[in-house]
Amino acid sequence: MSTKNVKKTVVLRALALSFSIHACFANAAEFTDNDFPSQQLGHGVYELAYDQGQNALYAASAPSFDKDKTAGLVFQLDANSLKINHKIATERRAFAVALDEATTPSILATRWMVRLRC
């Protein structure tokens, strides 16, 4: 195969690939904010954990960094609708949340991982 034919083949393959990629994007659906559920939780939401058994989503929150406001919140949300089921107050700001599946449904929250029962 001559150099001219190799170059022509490479160009044609690149062009075919480009058209294929463009066709995929042309058929892609556009999404708006209305296509996704959302829930306003306030300031300082840091981390999420999903509990499949309860179909719940937990969100750790440190709503304020004022020196006299050190409490945090952990929100328990319905995983489908994002409706707030519970607001769990913590003594310290909650920067993290994790699910402990080894025990009765419980979550671990805050910087020092305090066990919370739900």
How would you sum up this structure, described in words?
The protein has one helix at residues 3-26, and strands at residues 45-51, 56-61, 72-78, 84-90, 97-100, 106-109, 114-117. Strand 1 (45-51) and strand 2 form a beta hairpin. With 118 residues, the protein is an alpha+beta fold. The protein folds into two domains: 3-33; 41-117. It is elongated, with a radius of gyration of 25 Å. The protein contains one helix and seven strands; from the N terminus they run αβββββββ. It starts with a helix and ends with a strand. The strands form two sheets. A four-stranded antiparallel sheet has the order 1-2-3-4, with no helix packed on it. It has a three-stranded antiparallel sheet with strand order 5-6-7, with no helix packed on it. The relative contact order is 0.15. Helix content is 20%, strand content 33%.
What are the salient characteristics of this protein?
alpha+beta; 1 helix; single chain; four-stranded antiparallel sheet; 7 strands; 2 domains
In short:
Keywords: Signal. InterPro entries: WD40/YVTN_repeat-like_dom_sf (IPR015943). The protein is of the alpha+beta class.
Blueprint (SSEs and pairs):
Layout: H1 3-26, E1 45-51, E2 56-61, E3 72-78, E4 84-90, E5 97-100, E6 106-109, E7 114-117
Antiparallel strand pairs: 1-2, 2-3, 3-4, 5-6, 6-7
Write down the overall geometry.
Answer: elongated
Give the beta-strand count: 7
> How is the main sheet built?
4 strands, antiparallel
Oligomer: single chain
Overall number of structural domains: 2
What is the string of helix and strand elements? HEEEEEEE
Stretches where pLDDT falls below 50 for ≥5 residues? none
Q: What structural class is derived from the secondary structure elements?
A: alpha+beta
Report the mean per-residue pLDDT as an integer. 79
Distance between the termini: 72 Å
Proportion of residues in extended strands: 25-35%
Q: Give me the side-by-side strand order of the main sheet.
A: 1-2-3-4
Number of helices: 1
Helix content: 10-25%
**Radius of gyration using CA atoms only:** 25 Å
